[in-house]
Design brief:
Blueprint (H helix, E strand, L loop, with lengths): L1 E6 L2 E5 L11 E7 H6 L1 H12 L5 H8 L6 E4 L4 E6 L2 E2 L3 H9 L3 H9 L1 E2 L2 E6 L3 E6 L4 H14 L13 H14 L1 H19 L6 H36 L7 H74 L14 H22 L7
Parallel strand pairs: 3-9
Antiparallel strand pairs: 1-2, 1-3, 4-5, 5-8, 6-7, 8-9
């Protein structure tokens, strides 16, 4: 568990929970889910001293729940936001390498590499409590970013967040933007599956993996819809906050609204891309069945043309194969060659006719 004091353009990391809130700035308490569960009593005691009230037990259960969907709730003391991230799991770079080799196992593993663990935020007026998965890159990224911003490096992307809500929105926006790393992975895996789908040698494994990919996309769509609903509720709650007393506070409040709408717009873009991938997968399945139907029609047309080609030849051989004495040319020395020449002419003529009609051949 790490505790930071953020004020103005400076920040410092504290070793223990302070007895009281600092006179300026705010505190950021960031912990892994397991650490939060072990030290929940200390956190609750500290929040009681700092804000006048601890977290509710139901909200503590929400923060400790690793399967909770994205949602928003609020009390008179704090706002609670649980936001599921969309991030590439461990080994993603190796999956890109395996994917270039065209292995089916890499496609299945890439779909399973998506990390959708929830991150919890308890936003007080001057305290932010965040609960992350173990070894969460979001927490480490913002700690490093605060160090760079406090050092005066403008490449870190603006100034230090001036409120717990501002820091929370920046972290949520970073989690949404991390989907951009997944977009290339998912798109290339779907393209690979679509190419394998049109391979005549593709077996049942392709269909199984395509079903897994569609299920993964449906799961991502549900996660994005929950994210959007949570942010919309946060925006509605933000509009119900008491009117700001000063011009600076009104400006900060408007900045929070702008950031909230920006996060919502990014979620809409992610949701649109996920639905586009779903539509692409469904279109590939429809095109596969259309290609299969076209291939079957081509085969049946060729077989029908061959049957029509041999039908008159069978008629001629059947006619002259009858056991009668009075058949013409049956006792002639040149009868065989006459009938053979006639059958050859009929076969060549019908073959030429069928090829001109494009009943035979690939074109």
């Amino acid at each position: 568990m790490r505790i930071f004091h953020i004020t103005g353009d400076q920040y410092s990391e504290l070793e223990t929970f302070p007895d009281a809130l600092p006179p300026t700035g705010y505190l950021w308490v960031a912990s892994a889910r397991r650490e939060f569960e072990v030290q929940i009593a200390e956190v609750q005691t500290a929040l009681q001293r700092w804000t006048g009230g601890p977290l509710f037990d139901l909200h503590v259960s929400d923060l400790l729940n690793n399967q909770l969907p994205s949602n928003f709730d609020y009390t008179s003391l704090y706002d609670l936001l649980v936001f599921r991230r969309l991030a590439a799991g461990a080994g993603t770079e190796r999956l890109f390498i395996d994917e270039n080799r065209g292995t089916l196992a890499s496609a299945r593993a890439a779909l399973a590499a998506i990390d959708t663990s929830p991150v919890g935020f308890a936003v007080f007026d001057r305290v932010l409590v965040t609960v992350h998965p173990t070894d969460c890159q979001v927490r480490d990224f913002f700690v490093q970013r605060l160090q760079i911003q406090a050092g005066g490096d403008n490449r870190a992307g603006g100034r230090i967040p001036n409120s717990p809500a501002d820091l929370m929105l920046r972290m949520v926006n970073h989690m949404v933007d991390s989907y951009l790393e997944l977009r290339r992975l998912l798109t290339r895996q779907l393209e690979f599956l679509q190419q394998q789908l049109f391979d005549p040698r593709g077996g049942i494994n392709i269909w199984r993996m395509l079903l897994e990919s569609r299920n993964a996309l449906h799961q991502l769509e549900d996660i994005c819809e929950d994210q959007r609903a949570a942010i919309v509720e946060w925006i509605d709650a933000l509009d119900e906050w008491p009117e700001a007393a000063s011009a600076e506070m009104r400006r900060d409040r408007e900045l929070l609204r702008v950031r909230s709408r920006d996060v919502l717009e990014h979620i809409e873009r992610v949701l649109t891309h996920v639905r586009r991938l779903q539509s692409s997968a469904e279109t590939a399945v429809q095109m596969h069945f259309s290609a299969q139907s076209h291939r079957t029609n081509e085969t049946m047309r060729a077989l029908t043309a061959l049957t029509a080609l041999f039908l008159p030849l069978n008629l001629v051989t059947g006619f002259f194969g009858m056991n009668f004495e009075g058949l013409p040319l049956i006792h002639s020395r040149v009868g065989f060659w006459v009938i053979f020449t006639l059958m050859l002419a009929v076969g060549i003529g019908m073959s030429v006719l069928f090829m001109r009609k494009r009943y035979l051949g690939r074109n």
